[in-house]
Amino acid sequence: MTADASSVSTPWMALRDTDRPAEPATRPDTVVAVDFIVNGKPCRLELDPRTTLLDALRDHVGLTGTKKGCDHGQCGACTVIVNGRRTLSCLSFAQMNDRDEITTVEGLASDGRLHPVQQAFIDHDAFQCGYCTPGQIMSAIGCISEGHAETDADIREYMSGNICRCAAYPNIVAAIRQARDEMERA
Amino acid sequence: MNKHAALDLKSSRIAGGIHTDQRHDSAHKHVTGTAVYIDDMPEPAGTLHGCLGLSTATHATIRSMDLSAVRAAPGVVDVLTAKDIPGENDISPTGRHDEPVLADGKVQFYGQPVFCVIARTREEARRACRLAKIEYDEHPFITDAAEADPKNPKLVTEPLTLKRGDAAATIARAPRRVKGQMRVGGQDHFYLEGQIALAVPGEDRDVTVYSSTQHPSEVQHMVAHVLGVPNHAVTVEIRRMGGGFGGKETQGNQFAALAAVAAKRTGKAVKIRPDRDDDMTATGKRHDFLIDYEAGYDDEGNILGAEFRYAARCGFSADLSGAVTDRALFHCDNAYYYPAVRAVSAPLYTNTVSNTAFRGFGGPQGMVGAERIIDEVAFALGKDPLEIRRRNFYGTDTRNVTPYHQTVEDNIIGRIVDELEKSSDYQRRRRQIAAFNANSDVVKRGIALTPLKFGISFTATQFNQAGALVHVYTDGSVHLNHGGTEMGQGLYVKVAQVVAEEFQIDLDQVKITATTTAKVPNTSATAASSGSDLNGMAAQNAARQIKDRLIDFASETHGVAKDQILFLPNRVRIGNQEIPFVELVKQAYNARVQLSAAGFYKTPKIHWDREKGSGHPFYYFAYGAACAEVSVDTLTGEYMVERADILHETGRSLNRAIDLGQIEGGFIQGMGWLTTEELWWDGKGRLRTHAPSTYKIPLASDRPKIFNVTLADWPEAHEPTIHRSKAVGEPPFMLAMSVLHALSDAVASVADHKVCPCLDAPATPERVLMTIERLRKTRAEH
Q: In terms of domains, do A80 and A50 share one?
């Protein structure tokens, strides 16, 4: 093999799973009970303790609006709101959210009326493929409620945890601006 | 029911026809989380999950493979290796038999799929994968184009040569000459929705595969080939993808084939969705290129002759590399006329993942080579690169023949650039920037205006065909299906607009349905920007067949001449009376008129002789230009895009709102390719940038601070395309060359614009800084 000295693995590079020693393929006997409120409805699940909030929502509650993009907390597609704060659901074990109040994209519209951020995303064509959209919308709600949507520069900075590979960014920023004004008026 | 009763029967225009801004058809579903991607579909009971076991050697013979612990792991139902493939262990899209589904005896890149675990849960499959014991006898490998033997490199497919005139002699005779080499990096697609396939076994030899693919027909053929069954046994369906960008043109084949094999073996539905690291490691990317160039020019900056060699890191198999490297050559001219030219490709074999299609398909890499020559000439003569660009543009009546002997018949680049130069205030800003730089020690600004001309059509002529299926139901509603796939680009809504326009019914009367090989067969990939051009025409053809039958029927039964029958919004005028569309449909049904049609289209005029390097491979060209301004911190190499102005054309746009989104998004994605997105292999041949933590994709904060995007309202397609519109998918990607050249301009200021920066791509802050240091050193030495 022609590997040279420069091939020494660099610690700041993300290690692939296959670079690590094999882990024992055991399943824990324990199952934890998790109680949380999802979109206003109480929800009780029995889960492998390693289940992420994202997998709990998608695979156990059946809410597939929240997307798995990278499963590493790097793309933002899995953003949900936990107790009023935007949170990456792929980086949170579901059991850590016991008794928390969780809002997903499915819980935003009420009485058939879209949330102002949802409506603004439609008005501004703030998506193309749509896969990042639920995460963008949840993140946008967080961004506005935190007061981080005062200027376009702020919106861009505080939305920079959400990748849109189609790069619909101009329209996403425009949508958030509109929603901010509407939410402030309300 | 009776929704038609509410239709507006007085309106002068339908709601949602062509040349109107229509929202993406799934807009409401996207914002409410109800748009179903494959991973969101309810899984059939007992669905099993697959995970790929990837090689941990870069080039090696498999000495031994012990999968006993994998088979014994909790939840494991089946483990597939090469010998378990019932048909051909091959998914080469060009029939070269060089791309196994699972490695057989040898591995050719780090991360190549060797086996596939099928387990009750995805988690169990992933854990079991780690338990494989594989021993390798390792061989020497090359991962970089620069390591290949320049005289006799190993190639994955036949190279191409384009030539017109005697370039070498012309360059030798030219008053001035330039020669150099340029590196341009690759790009990971990072479609937000990763690769995924869900295979559901049927009776007999049948299987249905839901595959996130831009090319359902190819997935069908590959699955059939791998299963060893006829194509008719395999149905492939895709409603929407969460992004494709070329990464799902051939790269879905592997997952679909394995899911199908496992589904038939186990009798259960099988889903394979690799995690992001595996996806980035085991699937192909945009080709990086090493471009050698030489040009001869005169004192005014007229290029007299140009020679290029485009060497590409293709990976271990051909995949689409032949067509990609061909397209690089097709765009070695960008918008410039070369009186004499010779361009050759070198599709290099490397021990890396097999590179594939990505928006632009080699065209962007071709163009950056052309733009480098422009920069070199401009710096050597001390002139503004824009002046050199303009001087070398294709003419309209003369100087209009490309290196592949096609005459450019629709050239509008001059007007596009003139208008953008004015609207972006280029000349004044260039002077302002010079003044700013003179007074700013650390931060330097730069500006560039680059043109683009992009050829539209598949260069493999046979792919330029499309089919559609249209049904009119007796309530007047319409079912639309065609071979194009939806990946966010808005194809579905555009084709629906065409059908609504044809029947003169409101857009919401047209139901857009998932692409499936069972409805429209033998389709081409949704690629080469061709989606709307091809499928729009095919759908129009289907609608016209039904319309013609309705006209014949109305003419006979009402005793009215055919030219007295007119389709008005939601109604039809037959002589002196008007009846709702639905009434005519009901009457036609009762008279046993067929209300369904299969439409077809093939692009006229195109032909291509690859052996001779001559023909008319492109139906037409799309044009645009961009002007970018950047600021660079010359102490760190960090930079900002301060402003970008774009003027782009899509002929008579079918839907300006959709087209603008494509232009903005394409520019930003192109900017990522040329600036921050860097793929990095280590000395062991391992790709170390396999997640967004190490691979920098543009964010909202990276877009230009000021971003003025204009769709030119005056062009129309020179050829009779669908309603005289033009393709939009790929061309805007190359507008981002303006950013690379603006960075180059800013960097050049540290040496008073006396030295061509020859800034390679991606121009990461690191590379910008190294270029600044090199220029300072060169300047100091002279």
A: yes
